[in-house]
Amino acid sequence: MDRPRWEPLWQGYQTSRKVPDEVTELTWRRFFDDLEPVHALVAEEGDALIGLAHYLFHRSTAQIAPICYLQDMFVAEAARGRGAGRALLEAVCARAKEAKASRVYWNTDMNNTTARALYDSVATLTRFVQYRRYL
Asked: Cα-atom radius of gyration of the chain, to the nearest Å?
């Protein structure tokens, strides 16, 4: 994975949130730091990157096995509907299984009907509602 091909996808993902440049820089460096639990996968078509998935592992107070959080997933608009999102999701799940994680979870916007159609076909929608308190 190289940054000049990754960054346009990362920027495309930033439609509902714009992260500062220093966050982008730190995120990129974390992918290559063995001490960080943050990982990245990409989907390629020829020489082009068409999708990305960023995920991390964390502990839980409710179980022994780690849990995998799929934090970011994005497929370039021109490549949607051709299986890249499903392939990325399955690849993250395979990595989580290798790490002996008990589950993979993620959040999405309730109005993201395109992504939700995929998610509904591969996972269970839970009853949990997410709250945030910014500090």
From this structure: 15
Question: Tokens 């509902």 belong to which residue?
Answer: 16
**d(Cα 16, Cα 64) in Å, to the nearest integer?**
35
Q: By C-alpha distance, which of 69, 9, 62 is closest to 38?
A: 69
Q: Residue 80 has what pLDDT?
A: 92
Torsion, Cα of 76, 17, 35, 42 (10° steps): 0
Contacts of 107 (CB under 8 A, 6+ apart): 130
- CATH number for 3-122 (one of 3.40.630.30, 3.30.1330.90, 3.40.50.150, 1.20.120.1760): it is 3.40.630.30
Query: pTM of the full predicted structure?
Result: 0.91
Which 3 state secondary structure label does DSSP give 125?
A: coil
